[in-house]
Amino acid sequence: MLVEGRNYVSQLARELQISRPLLQIHLRKLEQSGLVSSTLELSTDGKSMKFYEVTPFSWDLSPKLIARAAATLTVADNKGDN
Question: What is the residue-wise DSSP string for 38-75?
């Protein structure tokens, strides 16, 4: 949802239909990893609003990087499933 532009927590929670506390947990983790950034602003009525937006980034994929990522994958054991 943030790819389309910055937004504030309450609006994002309504659009995603999840609680604000749960959304804030996810957004904090994304911010800690550097994928999003936040700013605190005051609305015209004096309420604080925390806005989040995507932090521009790019990944250079290489065969070595793909091999490292593939090594972390696990395969589910489907024994007993029909």
Answer: EEEEE-TTS-EEEEEEEPP------HHHHHHHHTT---
Sheet hosting strand 36-42, strand order edge to edge: 7-8, 48-54, 36-42
Q: Which domains does the chain have, with CATH numbers?
A: 2-70 (1.10.10.10)
pTM of full prediction above 0.90: no
Handedness of CA 15, 39, 30, 6 (dihedral sign): positive
Q: For residue range 41-74, list pLDDT tens digits in order.
A: 998 999 889 999 999 888 889 999 999 999 999 8
Residue 37, SS3?
strand
Which residues is 7 bridged to in the sheet? 52
Measured over the CA atoms of residue 29, residue 33, residue 39 and residue 40, the dihedral's sign is positive
